[in-house]
Structure formats: structure tokens, C-alpha cells
Automatic annotation (TrEMBL):
Provenance organism: Egicoccus halophilus
Name of this protein: 1-acyl-sn-glycerol-3-phosphate acyltransferase
Gene Ontology molecular function, alphabetical: 1-acylglycerol-3-phosphate O-acyltransferase activity
SMART domains: PlsC (SM00563)
Record keyword Acyltransferase present: yes
This protein's record includes keyword Isomerase: no
Sequence ranges assigned to domain Phospholipid/glycerol acyltransferase in this UniProt record: 57-175
Annotated segments matching region Disordered: 247-279
Biased composition (Basic and acidic residues): 252-268
A Pfam family assignment: Acyltransferase
Chain intervals with Gly residues compositional bias: 269-279
Amino acid sequence: MKPADARERRDERPDGTPLRLTWKWRSIALLVIALVNLCRWRVRVHDLHHVPPRDGAVLAFNHHSYLDFVMVAWAPVRRLRRPVRFLAKREIWGSRWLGWLVRAAEAVPVDRQSSVARAGAFDAAAAALRRGDLVAVAPEQTISRSFELLPLRTGAVRMAQAAGVPVVPVVGWGSQRIATKGRLPRPAFGTPVVVRYGPPLHVGADEDPVAATARLAAAMDALLDEVVREYVDGTPAGAWWVPARHGGGAPDHAEVVRDHTSRTRRWDGGSGGQGDATP
């Protein structure tokens, strides 16, 4: 076994090896497993075989709760013994509750207010992918209050294209009932949570990132619709955590998209475009 300092090397790894399960990652995993068991959340993972067991890949996931990062990494860490590097907004680093977590997990900070910082995050993520890391990205950038997909940014496919690795669409469902935007977190004992991985998408070196992102959005939307329809607790009429198009009480999707588009323009300094390298 390699000495601890070799196992814990970060972006300075001179041998180009992918990130390993350090003692910090193992500690995080134990805490998460204890929390899931305590709350008796019923986590079900489908089609993990779509995630490369050793090579690099972008895991593009839908963002509908504050627990998405836990659920996306749940199976890769426990079954494949692979850590997952997340792109997370820089504000989390200053959080009393989550700052230690993103640092221990070696997440890549993203400053949405700075185009230079965003480009730096993109380069760091692409370098990690070339080394063989799994990098998780929420292309929507923020939690969707409608629990449907918001317009995707092109960063996920761009970094996959730059590193020559596939994009694996990932859809989670159920964890919005535990912790999501605009609602107080609650234990929600026994809540079923589903995570499904879709077939990898390969982005050609000359492919238009906007077109590739449209392919990714279509794949994620189809996966999400399938997961929602098959959810063990169904889609109760009027339930706040069910999308409006499924008869639920979640906010109207068109209105949520309009609000999101307005915020995106502010992040982009007024451009609102998706053709940059924003992760």
C-alpha cells in the first residue's frame, strides 16, 4: 500500500494517476452511510455499469435537492471504490456546515461572478478528467424549484470534449422531499431515493457543444420522466414535491425557467449566453 502522503496528493499528482479513496473520503462515506441508515432512506441505484470502473468521465446530474452530491457519489464510492470530484459554487467553501466537506472531497470551486475564475475551474476539471477522475457537474447550475430540468449550460460537454472522455447522464429523484430550496430540511424517515445512470454520450472533437448539450438534455429529460413515472411512492396529486405536469403542486416550470434565465444573465454579466466554458 502506498504511504498516506502519496494517496492524498491532489492536483499536483506528478504520475497522472486518478484520485484515490483517501482517509478523508472514507470518513465522509462513513458519515453519509450512518446518516442514510439513521433516517432509513431507501436508496436504489440503477445501471451503475454505465460509469467507467477506472477511466475518466463527466457525471452530469439533475439538480433538485441539496443532497444530490451525496446520491450521485453513493454508488461510485461504495461499489466502484471511486471518489467523485464535484464542481461546486465557491460560496460553499465559506459555509460553516459544508466548507469542510467540499475541501475534504477535493471539490473544484466555481466562482459564477468571474469569467476568469470559471475558466480556471473548467481547466482544473478537464485536467482531472484526463488523469482518469470522475467529475460531477450540475449543468443546470442551480436547484430547479419545478423539479424539472432547467436549461443546461455547455460546460459539461465542453470539458468532456476537451479531455476526450464520455458524459454519463445521471438522474436522481426523491431527495427533494428531504432537503431542497425554499423548504426546511427534514429527516423524512423512510423516503425512497432513486439514482439512475444513463448510457454514456460521446462528444466528437469537432461537434458543436450546443448540439451535444441538446443531446445530453434530451437523455436526462427522458431518464427523469422514466424515474418519476416508476417512483415507488407515485406522483400524488397536489404534492409539493411532484412536478406540475405530473399533477403535482410544484411551481410552474415555465415560470421557474424565466426566473432562472434572469439570474443566469446576471451571472454572465448580461450576456445570458451558453456558449462559454462555464461549468
